[in-house]
Write a structure and sequence with these properties.
The structure is a homodimer.
Chain A (H helix, E strand, L loop, with lengths): L5 H11 L6 H13 L1 H18 L1 E2 L6 E2 L5 H4 L7 E5 L2 H10 L5 E4 L17 H9 L5 E4 L5 H13 L6 E4 L15 H9 L5
Chain lengths: 199, 199
């Protein structure tokens, strides 16, 4: 990149720092954008600018939104009394793509982690306790990762909500769709066996 | 993406259409940008905006530039009388990363292709002939892909420049650095054998 003009070099460097991109893919992207300025660069700029100005965090659930309260929280059909607790917005989007859950969410913004010194007050756990305490919640579904940190967080939340008497559930563990036993780790097979059901 | 707000959805759709990105990596990118608005989104917006406004094609060589004539063409130290002919700007950048070539470039903007109905007048071949005809050029180095279209283009250019008497060379073909014979195609091995040299 010795001789690419400075502005272009700076853009490539910016791009190369984004997740999933490196210097090579950033160069390719920037060239593409420059060579298709009207079809690609300008619409992208406009879309980025709109999002940069409007994106905010939903004050109720922590989802990313273009309004103070997100579209899911304002949708009365989704006020089913079920709250699905997820680690981050990417997980919320993944749940939505699944299309099965019809209630509301609560985005923690991470998991408890002794290693990274992330405690309950760094996450949106107090807000969750308040939200459940305010009533109208029938069930809290813990959709957290099946990792040590994820499960520690799940147990902590279950404890913190214990006094409210709300029903607390967690995603089932088992064999994923299309999963071949041969390629599954032993932990998953064990969990699926313990949770076996009538056929 | 059912429930991501519309502006954000639109941005993800824009991103997903860029080369090397798909819906999944676009979602990841957009989330990253929104969650790091000040460190990532705003600098990227500013850099994109600058390039969108300033990027143009060098009128002499076809390189991408932020000025009417690019930094390589205006650098008098590079007026060595050597012109390296490349297919596109990505190839020019690749040559520059190599750091060996110290002359100037000529970017064709593609290769001749009967299949895609790309003829000489669709490329910057007439400009190359003019440039060589204007004098001051000692050698034209054809750095085109070792593909049928690349080599057809090379032969066409050599013919078109025949009357100028300028020296015309092409990149050597052979075993790439770090290349193991076992993994090389037969064509490359044959070319490397025919072009063998004293050791």
């Amino acid at each position: 990149m010795d001789r690419a003009p400075n502005d272009i070099e700076a853009l490539i460097a910016q791009m190369a720092r984004l997740p999933g991109l490196g210097p090579r893919s950033a160069r390719r992207l920037v060239l593409h954008l420059i060579q298709r300025r009207d079809q690609s660069m300008r619409p992208l700029l406009a879309a980025l600018d709109r999002v940069s100005q409007s994106a905010q965090t939903c004050s109720q659930c922590g989802n990313i939104s273009t309004a103070p309260v997100c579209a899911i929280c304002t949708d009365t059909r989704r006020a089913t009394g079920e709250i699905c607790v997820v680690e981050d917005v990417a997980d919320l989007w993944a749940m939505e793509r699944g299309g099965v859950f019809k209630g509301q969410y609560h985005v923690l913004g991470g998991t408890l982690s002794a290693l990274d010194a992330i405690g309950p007050e760094d996450l949106r756990i107090p807000q969750l306790v308040d939200r459940v305490g305010n009533g109208g919640v029938r069930e809290v579904i813990l959709a957290l990762a099946a990792t040590v940190d994820g499960q520690t967080t799940a147990h902590y939340i279950a404890d913190a909500l214990g006094h409210t008497g709300v029903k607390i559930t967690a995603l089932a563990q088992g064999v994923p769709m299309g999963g071949e036993l041969d390629y599954l780790d032993d932990g998953t097979i064990g969990a699926a066996l313990r949770a076996r059901k009538d056929f």
